[in-house]
């Protein structure tokens, strides 16, 4: 097996393209089980900035007590989002992910008070309603990963007045998913469940890995505030 330090962007690109045949969430989670040990180094080669972009936007709008706030990090992976939020003063994290190997690394980071293994999209989120000050999902809203139907669950688990932060990619193979996601976000706003605080398109989201694209692909960050009923 190639050592992490010898890896190049081309190696990581090949690895990620090999996962495109994984069509179900379960396949994708198995892929992450095998990728976990190299994930942090490999996404650095991709210039993956989504965790810091999401953390920045949350930090710009959150006015409460950060040390006391409880953050639910959905599809937490190895813990890159909690690591960024900690730098902004947040101190209490609960993580959920489907991959046991990613969760092991999140546990080793010692950033989380609680970690739960759950395949998102199958049943309800394994957390209580109205209980988190911030709910965040980064890098997992795309085809074959977390279904759009889970967005309502994220809103349910948030305290009234709390925030939900989500990211998605805007490149060609995610456009259909992104449209469905934005439709659901708007529908939930029309139902009076939450209001949009910020939706930002970012051009240099991460390095492109597909054959049809080069340079950087774009992406989006959304921040919603759950309404007080
Ligand atoms: C690209 S990683 C993002 C991890 C972390 N949020 C970050 O930004 O580094 C996607 C994560 O979502 C998890 N995941 C994908 N689909 C899932 C599903 N249906 N249920 C649970 N976890 C899922 C994977 O196991 C993986 O840890």
TrEMBL record:
- What sequence ranges are listed for the domain Methyltransferase? 67-195
- Extract the PANTHER family matched here: METHYLTRANSFERASE (PTHR43591), METHYLTRANSFERASE-LIKE PROTEIN 27 (PTHR43591:SF101)
Q: Where is the signal peptide?
A: none
State the Pfam families in the record: Methyltransf_31
InterPro entries recorded: Methyltranfer_dom (IPR025714), SAM-dependent_MTases_sf (IPR029063)
| Name under which the protein is recorded | Methyltransferase domain-containing protein
- Name the source's superkingdom: Eukaryota
